[in-house]
């Protein structure tokens, strides 16, 4: 197969072979046609027009994008079957062609995948109102600014709610633009933090200094100046979801949203695995390490809340 073979040409040849072979029903061929052309449009939107450009990460990004649109698992499995059949046919014509489907797995029918927000929903959630009636009794809108920081850090750095509640002031490195978190099994990892989160942090620290109890090291505190609990964060996120999106929201939804948006944009599963600090995402259970600088580059290039604009000069050289 020539390296220049276009995706639509490959799909057309595959569908014609199915028709000529007579072993697939017209309904099956029509379903394959719809699924494969939808995949082709998605891939071409990413600049992938030739069949040899497609890699495993490209297919993951497509399937994740379909899931984020609300496509059911049964339909995802049909799309996966169409891709597998296409590459089986192509490799019969060109045995040396790389098969990006190989190694991919799909969840079983009925298996529940985590919920996440679309990028537009995430943007809407992050648009902080000037004030919220009933919550600005504390000095300088402390509650409002703290809640905005909660949302920014959950989404910007894909934190577990327990990791967020456990953050201390000295876990944030403003000079490096990173955050040190203590995950499951007390395993530490370093993740990037987006520029909007640093902006929210700077705004929050002023009223925090007024409210905090003497000697309190926690980043997030309650009205009494003490560390905010996991349950309190869950309640605040749920309330903010209802207020800004009209739906109840769980902190883990923001973690999954951050991961899925990064994966859709980059197709780099290894970066997402390191970003989340666990063995895999979705159906993947393979843990792979990568250099932090590579992770930071992927984050800055693809995450909707990245630090594309560069470091804020007022933050440089400080560690809090």
Map the helices and strands:
Blueprint: H1 7-21, H2 26-45, H3 56-68, H4 73-93, H5 119-126, H6 142-156, H7 161-165, E1 172-173, E2 178-182, E3 188-192, H8 195-211, H9 230-245, H10 251-266, H11 269-276, H12 292-302
Helix pairs in contact: 1-2, 2-4, 3-10, 6-8, 6-10, 10-11, 10-12, 11-12
Which homologous superfamily in CATH is the superfamily of the largest domain?
Intergrase catalytic core
Biggest β-sheet: strands ordered side by side in the sheet: 1-2-3
Radius of gyration: 23 Å
Structural class: mainly alpha
Protein name: Tyrosine recombinase XerC
Organism: Acidithiobacillus ferrianus
In short:
The chain folds into two domains: 7-93, DNA polymerase, domain 1 (Orthogonal Bundle); 119-302, Intergrase catalytic core (hpI Integrase, Chain A), CATH 1.10.443.10. Helices cover 52% and strands 4% of the residues.
What does this molecule look like?
- With 320 residues, the protein is mainly alpha-helical.
- A hairpin with a 5-residue loop joins strand 2 and strand 3.
- The chain folds into 2 domains: 87 residues, DNA polymerase, domain 1, CATH 1.10.150; 184 residues, hpI Integrase, Chain A.
- Helix 3 packs across helix 10 and helix 6 runs antiparallel to helix 8.
- Strands 1-2-3 form a 3-stranded antiparallel β-sheet.
- The longest helix has 21 residues.
Keywords:
3 strands, DNA polymerase, domain 1, mainly alpha, three-stranded antiparallel β-sheet, hpI Integrase, Chain A, elongated, 320 residues
